[in-house]
């Protein structure tokens, strides 16, 4: 299995296997803490080869820099069935879109979104949650 895309974005949809994303990001700026982010999507596009044939369980975890869970683990239900329609198909892809609402961040810091396949971490998506700096807003993205 290869993770082709793993990101947070403003919104996403799957149109017959075509992944459409809007507004990918890796940083949230807040004027104060705690802060609640109203809505976003966690998006993962995976490519499977014949060796991956079968059923796989996936879980997404959201952890702070100390390894504490920001959200309860999000098991993907149902599990992902990887099936090849013929021996001539070299790979299949699957899109995972998790629409997330009202995520609360207690303090600034680095957040890690981890994707686990069958209990093993396969990719990590970093998110920097930071305090908005008014003096930097005129010169470009805060960072």
Structural commentary:
It is a single chain. This protein is an all-beta fold. The protein has a single domain (2-131), classed as Immunoglobulin-like, CATH 2.60.40. The chain has no helices and eleven strands. The chain has strands at 2-15, 18-25, 27-30, 35-48, 54-56, 58-63, 74-75, 80-82, 92-105, 109-117, 120-131. The strands form three sheets. It has a five-stranded mixed beta sheet with strand order 3-11-10-6-7, with no helix packed on it. It has a four-stranded antiparallel beta sheet with strand order 2-1-4-9, with no helix packed on it. Strands 5-8 form a two-stranded antiparallel ribbon. It is elongated.
Distance between the termini: 33 Å
Largest sheet: 5 strands, mixed
- Record field, number of beta strands: 11
CATH class: Mainly Beta
Mean pLDDT: 92
Q: Describe the strand arrangement of the main beta sheet, using strand numbers.
A: 3-11-10-6-7
Stated plainly, the CATH topology is called Immunoglobulin-like
Number of domains: 1
**β content, as a range?**
over 45%
Q: Give the CATH architecture.
A: Sandwich
How would you describe the shape?
elongated
Q: Can you give the helix content as a percent range?
A: under 10%
Number of helices: 0
**Helix/strand order, N-terminal first:** EEEEEEEEEEE
- Derived structural class: mainly beta
How large is the radius of gyration? 17 Å
Ranges where pLDDT stays below 50 over 5 or more residues in a row are: none
Pfam families: DUF6941
InterPro entries: DUF6941 (IPR054221)
